[in-house]
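@channel anyone free to eyeball this complex?
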Amino acid sequence: MRISDKFDELKIKGDGALIAYVCAGDGDTTKIVHALIRGGADIVELGLPFSDPIADGPTIQASIERALDAGMNPDRYFEMVKGLGVDVPLVVMTYYNLIFKRGLERFVKDCKDSGITGIIVPDLPPEESGELGGYCEGNGVDLIFLVAPTTTGERLEDILTRGTGFLYLVSRLGVTGARADIAGSTKEVLDRVKTDKPKAVGFGISSGAQAAEIIKSGAQGVIVGSAFVDIIASGQDVEGRLEALAREIKSSLG
Amino acid sequence: MNTKQKGKFGRFGGQFVPEVLMPAVKELEQGYERFRNDPEFKQELDYYLQDFAGRSTPLYHARRLSEKYGIKVYLKREDLVHGGAHKLNNTLGQALLAKYMGKRRLIAETGAGQHGTATAMAGANLGIATEVYMGAKDIQRQRMNVYRMELMGTKVIPVTSGSQTLKDAINEALRDWVSNVEDTHYLIGSVVGPHPYPTIVRDFQSVIGNEVKQQIMEKEGRLPDSIIACTGGGSNAIGTFYPFISDTEVKLFAVEAGGSGMESTKKAALHSASLCVGEEGVLHGARTKILQDPYGQILESHSIAAGLDYSGVGPELTYLAETGRIKPANTSDDEALAAFHELSRMEGIIPALESSHALAYLAKAAGSGELGEIVVINLSGRGDKDLETVLEKGAL
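replying in thread with the prediction:
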């Protein structure tokens, strides 16, 4: 499913999107994805683990290490995604070297063939993205860019022009990870980024109350990662608690 | 199109960093453009290089070594720079640049502690708060260097993620920079990382090659036939080579760490020879040659010399190797150890294990004639720091 179709559908309902991130290969990914969707996740962002994840904080780094130790790799990843059988847009989040090594064209085709309709590459700024962007456009796969609190001027314009699917707004400086205070700078970034494309806010969201505030501030979606990954790391009643947290956050987005 | 090609060496280099860092690397680019030719900046840096670091360093004719190999061998004595290695050339330059740019905090990564120590020296001397990321394993192995940094007021932060070594220390320093870009300068220790770092570090290290050129003309009235330098990330190599790039009659040998063998296991290479056997990829912000598995996961590297133990290499060196201007080579742990002992005995100079790899290439290639009649070897550092490692090898 294309990301834009999902956002259109949610717009009609007057709902904000819950975008759930987990790292593939950390735990039983198929069961985890189904639990998140039962809880109400609208889009699932599935991390493809890389050995040197410089944009991720300790929680997701640890998840990536567990996934790599368990043997996750790009071949297995695309096989697994093919067998998921879900009806929500799937997005791959990974670092550029894995895409580069596989070959840009082959990677995008593998996405398309396995049902992935969006790609997020945290270490690929727009300046270096031309070639990958070309293959994405040719295959109907969105290339999603991050917008940071420090992104301004011409560079922001460039990202707004190139980005498709949605804009991934980073609510504050730093790496991924759950945080208590996020509201202030989020509003500022949301106001500053003027675009027709859907805006989703990530980095630090862990509760329904935070998510509700972000939607109220003008975002079309929230991205939640570390809070889900914490549950997976605990190993306690993983599916039940993932579903419950997804439901709590999703119910606050209406 | 123009801005897109900036910071590239052929197709290598670039700026593959998280969006949060893009304004910071652009700001650094602009800051460097503004101050690199600023007379006041240059004068101040020259002052520190001379009176604090102890430059210029001698170009020493190693007589006994020359006799043994039948080639006139000169050693560029970077081991005599304050701190015992070429590292300070770069840290002084970057710390001063950071000061001119109004940054209030320096962060750095370090493997064995050499770059961390050189950063601590520059930070203390210029009065800038300094924090150094170091792998937890490296901290255990290099307690004296940790203490040295702490003596100079630097905070050493243990890195417990990944393999707990240099590449993880770089990852962690990048994460810190992502969170504190506004007041912090990330002082990278080699010609790696996103543009403009490979260019900045090369320029600050080119003082080595510039001095060599002047000194060899004074002593020999001509350029050397070849120059040998050890290569990890590659800062001492490119710093020595760069002023000779257009002198195509001078052969340039970049000697990497052959470690304990040129093979790899599933997660680790037994060597650090990215130029020799690495594959193209993107690591720490730059497209270059790296040690990686068939999926693109980064392999851990190995060398007896901590300063060469890195999974990548500077993008400009990759470019120069591809165009044939420099020749990549490698010498093993054992060959480097033998060269370490040889220089100690024959010349009364205990070389760093890193530099011993360059010396080992002299022993390896002298018989072939490819080095010519006059060779300059960059003695990038002294070996006092390595005595424990050498003792462990029990090799006397």
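from a first look: The longest strand of chain A covers residues 17-23.
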